[in-house]
UniProtKB/TrEMBL annotation:
It comes from the Bacteria. This is PknH-like protein. It comes from Nocardia tenerifensis. Keywords: Signal. Residues 1-17 form the signal peptide. The keyword rRNA-binding does not apply. It holds the Pfam family DUF7373_C. InterPro entries: DUF7373 (IPR055797), DUF7373_C (IPR056463).
Length: 401
């Protein structure tokens, strides 16, 4: 059973699948001042330098969806109060896109040839315990970005998605925007939510916003504020031309090859189990987006590679990597206790889930280790395994340079 540490969302679920696993042999020689990683107890985990096949085949669009994690603005940059990340996900196809719009919208995505999408959500407070929707008194914003072949197609898709969505209820009413006249906005008087679609470049921005009270002017203001932040974010993002998406590489910087896994064979892009993201992907799902964003900016983290239920992040330099690892460990909260790490793995630190944690949603053991500018995070439900895994992660990072 793959377990992760959270997340759902309003209007539909943003499933944040887990991170980790790991085949034998230790190689490499020690350089001055470093340990000989051949002496580490790594079990059956492979720790030799590796390179995965780079051709994503029919999964190429997923790689562009992963890149789009940087195209969706973190909610805390929409408004400082929205610091609770509620999750994010790549939208692989039209069927998955229906989690975020009217269920009858599929013909629009099919006819206008949706390429891929990315969605993220944030709120001003955590969802109630055991719930996957925000509390009635919460402000929550879900931003979805749909990628189409060109600008003209995106404009058509935005209008058609609005037509389908507003027709769902005879009570729906249009709202104007003074800042974004091309935005399609609608709400249902008496209901404290609002939806919007707006084409921008090759994209359609789709918004769903909940407020604690019903006020059309207030809701329209939040749409304008969110669109402003999202347009600014999109202006910094360079989409891959449609005819070059097929040429995207699965692991261009060799980060996935630095993640210790139980089996390296048959790997293809997978948004939850074999993926490379920009740093905002880690912000969208943070309990404290403001702190995570500040940490990423201060440490220069620019990539996160997820393989099974482990990941490797790349920081600015070795000092920044150590700081990033320590901050991640400190952010786990009171439901984890300190666990002694393997003494022969330099700098490794481990945690164990305590009675305040939920073993159905979180791994029992987590370990963190850094090597030069890289940080490895590994998890397991078995202590002997996590100890071998963190040793394997260190050895693999050392052997990969």
């Amino acid at each position: 059973m793959v377990r992760t540490s959270r997340i759902a969302l309003a209007a539909s679920c943003i499933a944040l699948a887990g991170l980790l696993t790991g085949c034998g042999g230790v190689r490499g020689t020690a350089t001055a001042g470093e340990i000989d990683v051949r002496q580490l107890e790594v079990g059956d985990y492979a720790v030799d330098r590796h390179r995965y096949p780079q051709d994503p085949g029919e999964k190429a669009a997923l790689l562009e969806g992963m890149r789009m994690s940087e195209a969706v603005v973190p909610s805390v940059r929409i408004d400082p109060s929205l610091e609770v990340g509620r999750g994010s996900t790549v939208i692989a196809d039209a069927e998955q896109a229906l989690d975020f719009v009217a269920k009858t919208s599929k013909p629009v995505f099919d006819e206008r040839r949706l390429l891929v999408g990315y969605a993220a959500s944030g709120a001003d407070r955590p969802d109630p315990a055991g719930q996957t929707n925000p509390a009635p008194e919460a402000t929550a914003v879900t931003t979805v970005l749909f990628r189409f072949p060109d600008q003209a197609t995106a404009k058509l898709a935005a209008r058609e998605l609005e037509d389908v969505d507003i027709a769902i209820s005879p009570d729906n009413r249009k709202l104007p925007s003074t800042k974004y006249p091309d935005a399609y906005i609608h709400w249902r008087p008496g209901v404290p939510t609002v939806g919007a679609f707006m084409a921008y470049k090759e994209f359609v921005v789709s918004l769903f916003i909940q407020r604690p009270h019903t006020d059309g002017t207030d809701l329209a203001g939040w749409i304008d504020k969110t669109l402003g932040a999202e347009v600014a974010q999109l202006d910094k993002f360079q989409p891959t031309p449609q005819d070059r998406i097929k040429d995207l590489k699965t692991d261009p910087d060799g980060l996935l090859a630095r993640v210790a896994v139980a089996d390296r064979t048959g790997r293809v892009p997978d948004v939850a189990a074999f993926a490379v993201y920009g740093p905002h992907h880690m912000v969208h799902r943070a309990d404290d987006e403001s702190a995570r964003l500040r940490l990423i900016e201060e440490t220069g983290v620019d990539r996160q590679a997820i393989a099974d239920d482990s990941y490797v992040a790349r920081a600015r330099d070795a000092a920044a990597a150590e700081r990033f690892a320590d901050a991640l460990l400190d952010s786990e909260g009171a439901h984890y206790d300190t666990l002694g790490a393997p003494k022969d793995v330099p700098g490794a630190k481990c945690l164990q889930l305590n009675g305040e944690g939920n073993p159905d949603r979180e791994y029992k053991f987590r370990c963190y280790v850094s090597y030069k500018r890289y940080v490895g995070v590994v998890t397991s439900d078995k202590e002997p395994d996590v100890r071998q895994k963190v040793a394997a992660e260190y050895a693999l990072l050392a052997n990969s340079l």
